[in-house]
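Bumping with the actual sequence this time:
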Amino acid sequence: MSMLRRAMPIVAISVLAATTGLADPPPPLRVWVSGLGNDANPCSRTAPCKTFVGALARTFSGGEISALDAGNFGTLAITKSITIDGGGFLAGINAFSFSGIYVNAGANDKVVLRNLSINGGAAGTTAAATTASTTSPATS
């Protein structure tokens, strides 16, 4: 009987832990990209992502993606509020056959693109494109 009494708290804690479950942590508000990063990383300052696409997928709406160094961070389709800041580096996007950045966010979403170099664009394409519902006067 004493062995059963000692085991009961362990069983109770195990059942409680299994039934409550631990939720995944929420995405961060700020993530990082680096020319030496990897999209399998969590996009933290010490383990940055390689591309804007990888970083955008790990960021809350209204968050920020910042560049730690110079690099080509790939093309991007934006569908939520976000700030993308190249910092003082050459944060580049090379787009040769389509738009470098395509913004298709909601009418109330705010998209800020700062300190980026968008290169390329074949005939009939643009460096950055937006849907009619997301256009608004530029702000700084």
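The tokens above came from a reply further down the thread. Helices lie at 2-20, 52-57.
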